[in-house]
Design a protein that fits this description.
Chain A folds into 2 domains: 120 residues, Glutathione S-transferase Yfyf (Class Pi), Chain A, domain 2 (Up-down Bundle); 148 residues, Rossmann fold (3-Layer(aba) Sandwich). Chain A contains 17 helices and 8 strands. In chain A, helix 4 packs across helix 5. Chain B has 11 helices and no strands. Helix content of chain B is 50%, strand content 0%. In chain B, 44% of the residues are buried. Chain B folds into 2 domains: 108 residues, no CATH class; 55 residues, no CATH class. The two termini of chain B are 31 Å apart. Chain B is mostly helical. Classes of the chains: A alpha/beta, B mainly alpha. Chains A and B meet through helix 1, helix 2, helix 3, helix 4 and helix 12 of A and helix 3, helix 7, helix 8, helix 9 and helix 10 of B.
Chain lengths: 288, 177
C-alpha cells in the first residue's frame, strides 16, 4: 500500500481546514494512507511564480526534496500546489540548465533534487479508487443536481498535469457520479473562476465569474462541486460581490468533492465542518 | 498613446529563452487563437479599442518577440499594469495554441521583470513577503489552529523558515520585497 506525504497547502491548512477534514476522512475510508511533512508554501503558481520564477522553482524543488528524503509520493489537496509541484518537476526534468541552477542553490542549504518521486492531485487518487468509493457509499445522492468545476490548474498545462482533457475534463464528473448525484453539463465548464486576475483587477475577475455562474444557473444546478481551495474560496465568497456588482442574485452552494463523498459515506455535516461555508446551504443540500 | 519604438535586446533575449527550445516562439503566426480563447480579453476589451489598454495575448507574443519591452509593461513604469498583470494564469492560451507556444510562461516572465522593478500588484508583493517571512503564503493563526484541533486534525507541520529564507536570499528575492 502506497503511503503519501500529505500536502494540504497554505489555504487549506491555515485558512479553510474543514476541507482537509473531509479529505482525510474520505482517504481513510478508501484505505489511502497519508503522513505529514514540514512542507513550505508550494509556492503559488499564480503569485510567487509571477513575482520570481526562479524562487518558484527553488521552493518547489525544496518541497520535492522533503518528500524524496522519505521516498514517498506527494498527495496534494489543491490545484495550485499540484500545479506548482508537477510544473517544477516537469521544467527541471526537461531543462538541464534550470536543473543545474536550482541544484546549485539547493546545495547551499545541503539539499539535492533528484526527481525521483511522483506528485498526485487528490482527484487522480480518488479516480484510481472509484471502486473503493462506490463500496463505501451508504447514501445515494440521487436527489442532487450538481455542476462540476475542476478548475484550470487541475488539467492545464496538459504537459505538466497529465490528468484530464484540458478543455473537456471528465474525471471530476465521474467521481461525483459515483455518489449517485446527477451531474449537469454547462457551457462554461472549462472557464477559469477568475481568481488570479481578481487581485489587481476585481472588475475583470467578477465579469469572468459571472459568465461561469450564469452558465451554471442556466443548467439548473443545486450546487457546484470543486476540487481546489482557491476556486472554492472564490466561488463561495465572491458570489456576493458578483451579485452586488451586477445587481442580481447568485447564491449557489459550493461543495468540495470530498465533502460530497463524505456525506454520501454517511459522515455527518458537523464532522466535516460544513457550517463554515459562506453561501448558505440550500434546501437541496439540507435534505441530504 | 503612440507605440514606443525602442527595442530592448536584453528583454528580447530573455523572451527567447522562455522556451526550452528558443526557436519555438518564432513560429507564432499571429493566428489569434490565444486571444480568441482568453477569458480576460473577452471581458476586458472585446473590441480592441486601444492597443496599449487591451489585454491581448496575441499582441503580447508579438511585441515581446520584437523586444518592445515598454508595450509589454503597458505604460512603462505603471504599477500593476494591465499588460502583463491582466493574465489570470488559466493556461487556456497554451492549450489552444497550434504552435504550442507557452504564452503563459512569456507573460510570467514579463510579470517577473515588472516585479523586479517594484511594479507588481500589492497582493502579489504581500504574498511574496508572507512566504519570505513565514515559509507559508498564509501564516498559521491561533483561531484556525484551534479549529483544526476541534475537528481532530493534526497540527500543520511547521516548515524550516531559516532554510526558506536562506534559499530566497541567495536568489535575491529579499531585495525585491
Amino acid at each position: 500500500m502506497t503511503e503519501y506525504k500529505m500536502f494540504q497547502g497554505c489555504v487549506i491548512g491555515n485558512r479553510v481546514p474543514f476541507l482537509e477534514a473531509s479529505s482525510r476522512k474520505v482517504l481513510e475510508k478508501i484505505g489511502v494512507q497519508v503522513s505529514d511533512a514540514p512542507f513550505a508554501c508550494c509556492p503559488d503558481p499564480t503569485g510567487m511564480k509571477s513575482f520570481d520564477s526562479t524562487a518558484w522553482l527553488a521552493m518547489g524543488a525544496l518541497n520535492l526534496c522533503l518528500a524524496e528524503a522519505e521516498g514517498k509520493p506527494i498527495i496534494s489537496l489543491c490545484n495550485g500546489c499540484a500545479n506548482t509541484l508537477r510544473g517544477v518537476k516537469y521544467q527541471l526534468k526537461h531543462d538541464s540548465n534550470k536543473m543545474e541552477a536550482i541544484n546549485k542553490e539547493l546545495a547551499k542549504i545541503g539539499k539535492e533534487y533528484k526527481g525521483s518521486i511522483d506528485v498526485k492531485h487528490f482527484v487522480d487518487v480518488l479516480k484510481d479508487n472509484l471502486g473503493g468509493i462506490k463500496s463505501a457509499i451508504t447514501k445515494q445522492m440521487s436527489n442532487l443536481k450538481v455542476a462540476v468545476h475542476p478548475g484550470c490548474h487541475y488539467m492545464r498545462p496538459t504537459e505538466w498535469m497529465e490528468s484530464d482533457d484540458p478543455l473537456r475534463p471528465k474525471n471530476l464528473k465521474e467521481i461525483v457520479a459515483a455518489t449517485g448525484a446527477n451531474v449537469v453539463d454547462y457551457d462554461e465548464l472549462a472557464l477559469c473562476c477568475g481568481n488570479a486576475v481578481a487581485g489587481p483587477f476585481p472588475e475583470h475577475g467578477d465579469a469572468i465569474l459571472k459568465q461561469k455562474l450564469d452558465s451554471i444557473k442556466k443548467a439548473g444546478a443545486d450546487a457546484i462541486i470543486v476540487n481546489c481551495p482557491a476556486c472554492f474560496q472564490r466561488l463561495d465568497t465572491a458570489q456576493r460581490d458578483v451579485s452586488k456588482r451586477y445587481d442580481s442574485e447568485y447564491n449557489v452552494p459550493v461543495l468540495y468533492v470530498t465533502e460530497l463523498i463524505a456525506l454520501a459515506m454517511g459522515i455527518s455535516s458537523e464532522d466535516i465542518g460544513l457550517k463554515n461555508h459562506r453561501v448558505r446551504r440550500n434546501t437541496a443540500i439540507e435534505n441530504l | 498613446m503612440a507605440l514606443p519604438l525602442s527595442i530592448d535586446f536584453e528583454f528580447r533575449k530573455l523572451i527567447m529563452d522562455v522556451h526550452i527550445s528558443s526557436e519555438k516562439i518564432k513560429y507564432c503566426y499571429q493566428c489569434s487563437r490565444c486571444t480568441d480563447n482568453c477569458p480576460v480579453a473577452e471581458v476586458q476589451n472585446p473590441f480592441y479599442k486601444e492597443v496599449t489598454n487591451s489585454f491581448d495575448p496575441r499582441l503580447i507574443v508579438l511585441v515581446t518577440l520584437l523586444g518592445y519591452k515598454d508595450v509589454t509593461m503597458a505604460v512603462a513604469g505603471t504599477k500593476a499594469a494591465l499588460i502583463p498583470w491582466g493574465c489570470t494564469v488559466c493556461d487556456t492560451c497554451d492549450t489552444v495554441c497550434p504552435q504550442a507556444i507557452e504564452v503563459t510562461e512569456i507573460i510570467a516572465l514579463a510579470k517577473n521583470v515588472t516585479s523586479g522593478a517594484g511594479l507588481a500588484p500589492d497582493n502579489i508583493i504581500s504574498q511574496a513577503k508572507a512566504i519570505f517571512e513565514n515559509g507559508k503564503a498564509i501564516p498559521p493563526q491561533p483561531a484556525i489552529e484551534r479549529r483544526r484541533e476541534q475537528m481532530g486534525l493534526p497540527a500543520v507541520a511547521a516548515p524550516d523558515v531559516n532554510e526558506v529564507q536562506t534559499l530566497l536570499k541567495n536568489i535575491g528575492v529579499d531585495k525585491k520585497l
